């Protein structure tokens, strides 16, 4: 997956997180995008257990400003390191550019700091979603979508077969597979329609493991560079905004798009033949 927002992890953030992992004294790190860089923007030490400390998360959430939160659990991985939760907070009333920026930089942040350290990911737009109650609801929803047992798979296949028989009686073609779009993908597409959007291109990919359509990248790109932006080894969906000015959609523009003019070579006319002789005159 290739996100090209251009935002990178700062050395300061890399040092803070490395220290948090080695010394195990931090419960929370807030990360913000400042001056085109991912920087630490507030930390909180551990006080009690992770559930008791969870209330501090809301203290770091501002009404209109997105941010990332690294929250440390008390559980440890097989390597003996503490496990972390990765949170993305993007308020609905935040600026469109900020929404796009934070959505397209998540993968870079995780990749550069080591996504194996994070056992869960939470995305939300309200402070309530980042309360302990909100997180527990998130976990229940996630557990409800856990992989099925073999017996459950068999029952699901039987029900699916019955449904297909009933459906095929009404329709002659097979039903399609519906993969939902992630919040980041939806926001990226909606962002193209905003007057203050600085991007004109959104690219999506199909995550077959999660069975969702995810955001690959959202950038401002020239049309002659579109072809090179697509990977050669995997498919992509793409939305390209050719113009963002409604005044461009004139009658002549639409007619040219629907019925483009073509140049034709001038028709060549044969020179008329002279009239034939009516008869032969003998001397």
Automatic annotation (TrEMBL):
InterPro entries: ADF-H (IPR002108), ADF-H/Gelsolin-like_dom_sf (IPR029006), Twinfilin (IPR028458). The keyword Ribonucleoprotein does not apply. Residues 270-283 have a biased composition (Basic residues). Signal peptide: none annotated. Residues 6-140, 176-283 form the ADF-H domain. Pfam families: Cofilin_ADF. SUPFAM superfamilies: Actin depolymerizing proteins. The keyword Ribonucleoprotein does not apply. GO terms for cellular component: actin filament; cytoplasm. Residues 263-283 are annotated as: Disordered. It is found in: Cytoplasm, Cytoskeleton. GO terms for biological process: actin filament depolymerization; barbed-end actin filament capping. CDD domains: ADF_Twf-N_like (cd11285). Interacts with G-actin; ADP-actin form. Belongs to the actin-binding proteins ADF family. Twinfilin subfamily. This is 1819_t:CDS:1. It comes from Funneliformis geosporum.
């Amino acid at each position: 997956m290739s996100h090209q927002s251009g935002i990178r992890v700062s050395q300061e953030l890399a040092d803070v997180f490395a220290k948090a992992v080695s010394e195990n004294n931090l419960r929370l790190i807030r990360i913000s995008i400042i001056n085109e860089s991912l920087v630490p923007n507030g930390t909180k030490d551990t006080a009690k257990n992770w559930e008791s400390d969870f209330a501090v998360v809301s203290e770091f959430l501002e009404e209109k400003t997105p941010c990332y939160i690294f929250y440390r659990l008390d559980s440890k991985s097989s390597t003996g390191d503490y496990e972390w939760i990765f949170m993305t907070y993007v308020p609905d009333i935040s600026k469109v550019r900020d929404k796009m920026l934070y959505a397209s930089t998540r993968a870079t942040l995780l990749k550069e700091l080591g996504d194996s350290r994070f056992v869960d990911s939470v995305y939300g737009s309200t402070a309530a979603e980042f309360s302990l109650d909100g997180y527990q609801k998130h976990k229940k929803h996630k557990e409800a979508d856990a992989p099925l047992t073999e017996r459950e798979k068999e029952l699901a296949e039987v029900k699916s077969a019955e449904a297909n028989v009933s459906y095929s009686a009404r329709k002659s073609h097979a039903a399609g597979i519906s993969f939902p779009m992630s919040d980041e993908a939806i926001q990226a597409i909606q962002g193209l329609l905003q007057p203050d959007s600085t991007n004109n291109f959104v690219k999506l990919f199909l995550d077959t493991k999660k069975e969702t359509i995810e955001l690959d990248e959202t950038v401002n790109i020239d049309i002659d560079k579109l072809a090179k932006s697509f990977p050669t080894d995997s498919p992509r969906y793409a939305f390209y905004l050719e113009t963002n000015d409604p005044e461009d959609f004139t009658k002549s523009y639409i007619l040219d798009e629907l019925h483009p003019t073509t140049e034709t070579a001038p028709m060549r006319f044969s020179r008329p033949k002279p009239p034939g002789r009516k008869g032969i005159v003998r001397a």
